[in-house]
What we know:
The protein is of the alpha+beta class. It has helices spanning 15-19, 35-56; strands at 5-9, 26-30, 68-74, 77-82.
Amino acid sequence: MFDHTLLVAEDDPQLEQLQSLDNIAHVRVVPAVGCERFAEMAYNKMAEVIEKSKAEGTALNSTVRVKSVEVFEHGANSAIYEG
């Protein structure tokens, strides 16, 4: 989702121009960008993966759940999302 990817908010005023860069970068449009939203996206994706594995019967442990996700912007700034 994030590795080697240019994340662009769907309401970015330069969205069309940035999407045209897809021939030189993997451009992914997301609802919003920022540390807080990235933490929320990661939380929701992991919760989805865990629930899917439980529903399919492939979960190694049925009691596992996501409690929170912390995303660091740099050493002095981070955001935590708790569901």
